[in-house]
Write a structure and sequence with these properties.
The protein is built from two helices and 14 strands; from the N terminus they run H-E-E-E-E-E-E-E-E-H-E-E-E-E-E-E. The chain has 273 residues and is mainly beta. Strands 8-7-6-5-4-3-2-1-14-13-12-11-10-9 form a 14-stranded antiparallel β-sheet. Strand 13 and strand 14 form a beta hairpin. The longest helix has 28 residues. The termini are far apart.
Length: 273
Amino acid sequence: MQTYLYTIVKSFSKKWFSFIASAFVVLFAFTPALTAQEVKTILPGDKEINAPLLRPFQAKYVRKNPWYMFWDRVNGYTTVELKVAEHRGIPCYVLTYKMETDDGGTIFDEMRLSKTTLEAIGRQMNNLYDGYDYDIAINENELNGTLTPLKGTSQKKATLTISGNFPHSAFEPSLVDYIIATMPLHENFTAKLPFIELAKKSTIQWVQFTVMGKERVKAGDQKTYDTWVVQTKYLTGNRQGEERKFWLSSTAPYKIKAETSVDWELLEVKLSD
């Protein structure tokens, strides 16, 4: 009798386990995987963005991988300044990168973004790598730009024009970390952002970020900072597949250090009121 009951229970258990396993197979078969398209999208002006968190500041960074400088003209130091200004009579943020070169020159890159939505609205840059001065304007999702040959370039170059018409506004790719710094960050917070990729016919591309967690790190100024660790990955465009990692100050809108094709570390910073 006991043997008979054991056989029934064993048989029932096998059938019940088989039923549960089949149910899971069916469930996963009909449950679509989470794709990049399903990750939360944050556009300029999104409710997740708290633009006033972008307080004006000045910061200086140093490169941590000098081997990169063997073929690069930058001598290892970059100054970043964020200030409030006007663009076409409208208040905006202006973020300026100044990179010192070995021959005593300066690579200058100035990006303008809306003070309310943080969308890209203009850019001026002397690009020593391709030998052009850039003058870019973005108005109502339409981009127009002129690339003028830098003075003193040995090669004769023609003036170029670039343009683009976008379905919606987008961010400046060099400012992704500052955009993220305005959001209510928490561990595992993931979203994707649109950015403008400059070309003869400029387009909108996408970058995804994930907040990995908090970490206390020491920077080049020998101070220790509380930071959010953020990982980014470019989903489309010329940078597709490229990953970057940076440490954002948890109390101010700037990065403490970054791991990209070039590793940067904060040397000094001054916040303005």
